[in-house]
């Protein structure tokens, strides 16, 4: 996952994170955003279901 | 012509003078940088103190606090007496030969890390040395942090002196060996296996977490924790809000902890003249830390929330988020750090339940949060960070990060924690120094250990003692 051809820090003069220059940053950003939305949806559903148990 | 030469000489002198000023400024900056990490890391202890006391029942609240405070107080001097020497002396293992970077080995440690003889000049006030004290301070706080991690797991039934002995073994020896081997440019785990653990997920958190596990096996559960059929009961602490705020303070303190893992540039001891580096001499920026720590905290909280809805586990999830990414906070992409920390938050509670179902009473989940998630973080970096160079600088060529190397590192960190924890607590148990007597545990340890009451106006009876000797 080292984003440079030569495995040495001598050649690094800019971005140095995993996947730089490839699809990984965009892909992980998309997955992270999907996680946030999915958690909100699941959270809302389960909270509503729990709240309904207190309806008279 | 002479006039021009004189003008030129004056200009050169001025430039030299300003250069000297810049050097002084840089030295002051470097010293201040590490000095600030020390009070920030003391916030970790404020957090652990609140966290443990909140997780204790009313009858044990102060004794839990006393234990935590004493851990800090005894680890600092013992780390001064010998822990600092161990760190510099044994990165290459036994018998303490010097490593390729030239900053390790028993001879080197003898010259800089003993509080006597010529070496003492680096272990006390010295106008020509603005680095040793702040480095020592930062490492001493790492050491005290390990003891605090273990402290929470064993509340409400451990003896004070037995606990302090364990805290010293962990804080001034066990984790120090792990740091020498895996967190030093001459460490054999680094030079031979390419182990990378920037933020100490393995060598601080996992070592402390599994040391606690070794102790818990010999210490046994609190009275009433398990039923006759082996099922576990929840023993709620007396103050959940205090515990949650304590966890948040730990998170604040970890900014100082991780800041102290950065080597600032431009000093004689720096890896680079113009850029900060990790302890391995690989480049890093504080911006990298800001991106990744924030995303890791968020991911851990969200993962724990969806699994538990419990604020205790959510804030533990924040901590787990940092720990799960700590090894690679220098090189993760923020969204990847978020995903890894989210997964750590998701697995956190099930892992704690698994341990509890095996008869281990870890009162605050320290084995899971720090031990299991620490090793998870070390291995995760092997999966995602393979191919990154492990070292750069005076240490020369070194292997790159690999999954195999990280797994070997994880196994070594596990053993460096678990074995001393188990063996030392076993010996203490043999001598009757480990567990408090049953009657005292049932009555409440504050009655035995502390001449004060945490909440004198409601609840537990405290001994009435004179405020001062009678005249």
Sum up the structure in keywords:
A: 56 residues; mainly alpha; B: 471 residues; Ammonium transporter fold; 15 helices; 64% helix
Structure description:
The complex is a heterodimer of chains A (56) and B (471). Chain A has 56 residues and is an all-alpha fold. Chain A has one helix spanning 24-52. With 471 residues, chain B is mainly α. Chain B has a single domain, classed as Ammonium transporter AmtB like domains (Ammonium transporter fold). In chain B, 64% of the residues lie in helices and 0% in strands. The longest helix of chain B is centred in the N-terminal third of the chain and has 54 residues, at 2-55. The mean pLDDT of chain B is 93. The interface between A and B is medium-sized, with 23 and 25 residues.
Helix and strand element order of chain A: H
Structural class of chain B: mainly alpha
How many distinct beta strands of chain B?
A: 0
Radius of gyration of chain A: 21 Å
Q: What is the CATH level 1 assignment of chain B?
A: Mainly Alpha
CATH homology superfamily name of chain B? Ammonium transporter AmtB like domains
Specify the oligomeric state. Answer: heterodimer
Spell out the blueprint of helices and strands:
The complex is a heterodimer of chains A (56) and B (471).
Chain A: H1 24-52
Chain B: H1 2-55, H2 61-89, H3 106-112, H4 132-153, H5 160-182, H6 188-193, H7 201-219, H8 240-259, H9 286-308, H10 311-326, H11 334-356, H12 366-384, H13 403-430, H14 438-443, H15 445-449
Helix pairs in contact in B: 1-2, 1-4, 1-8, 2-3, 2-4, 2-5, 4-5, 4-7, 5-7, 5-13, 7-12, 7-13, 8-9, 8-10, 9-10, 9-11, 10-11, 10-12, 11-12, 12-13
TL;DR of this structure?
With about 55 residues, chain A is mainly alpha-helical. Chain A is built from one helix and no strands.
